[in-house]
Amino acid sequence: MRFYGYFRSSAAYRCRIAFNLKGLNPEFVPVHLVRGGGEQKSETYRGVNPQMLVPALVDGDLTLTQSLAIIEWLDEMHPAPPLLPDDPSLRAKARAFAYAIACDIHPLQNLRVLNVLRAEFGQDQDGVERWCQRWLGEGLSACEALLARESSRGPFCFGQTPGLAEICLVPQLYSARRFKVPLEAMPRLLEIDAACAALPAFADAHPSRQPDAEA
Ligand SMILES: N[C@@H](CCC(=O)N[C@@H](CS)C(=O)NCC(=O)O)C(=O)O
User: Fold this and answer.
1) What is the rounded distance in angstroms from the CA atom of residue 155 to the CA atom of residue 138?
2) What does the pLDDT profile of the chain (215 residues) look like in tens digits?
3) By C-alpha distance, which of 169, 158, 15 is closest to 101?
4) Helix (H) or strand (E) holding 5
5) Does ligand 1 have an atom closer than 6 angstroms to the CB of 123?
6) Most buried of 1, 101, 151, 158 (most Cβ within 10 A)?
7) Ligand 1 neighbourhood includes 42 CB (under 6 angstroms)
8) Which residues contact 70 (CB under 8 A, 6 or more apart)?
């Protein structure tokens, strides 16, 4: 397996956690999202992912894009440990939580969106941070509220083991901290983040511990 990613990419970070939980160790191909205008836009990488986004996974003859599709593929090919709860209603809630982050929060803070805010809408660093604080703050508050509806309060979002929900949550909180989003009003998210940080699968996937990491 060959995995294309970038240390700071939260979508790649999701996949790294999934690889670690499954005990998989794909060959890593770094794609620098900033250097030279962004290696994701190179002709070579466009052959891997025409969307010009990381991550991407090549598994034998199969080239996959989209972190959630990659994670589901891993879960289907390597079922242990499962990344979704057994119970169908908890499974649906874990998916909804993950999609709230991956579909509705993350795209608003993507590098290309922030670059357009700067280049075409005249925003400086402060304006870009306020944009991220607004959308990440609102989205993560909704995630906190989704978890407050859960009657059982284990160490993780929807069960006794971490899975798809935490795989999306932890990298999104990493991004939120980068953009100085206030998180004090989200104690449950922070509690789950801390429980995950204590696990090697999550700790080893942290951006600072990747071979392409920069200060
Ligand atoms: N929905 C996609 C999002 C992928 C994505 O947005 N990747 C970002 C990094 S987190 C990227 O490659 N950005 C490059 C750019 O904006 O030019 C997924 O889950 O894989």
Assistant:
1) 23
2) 999 999 999 999 999 999 999 999 999 999 999 999 999 999 999 999 999 999 999 999 999 999 999 999 999 999 999 999 999 999 999 999 999 999 999 999 999 999 999 999 999 999 999 999 999 999 999 999 999 999 888 999 998 999 999 999 999 999 999 999 999 999 999 999 999 999 999 999 999 999 999 98
3) 169
4) strand 2-5
5) no
6) 158
7) no
8) 15, 18, 55, 56, 57, 64
CA of 76 relative to ligand 1 center, distance in Å: 23
**CB 127 near ligand 1, within 6 Å:** no
**Which atom of ligand 1 lies at the shortest distance from residue 55's CA?**
20
The token pair at 145 is: 């509220």
CA–centroid distance, residue 53 to ligand 1 (Å): 4
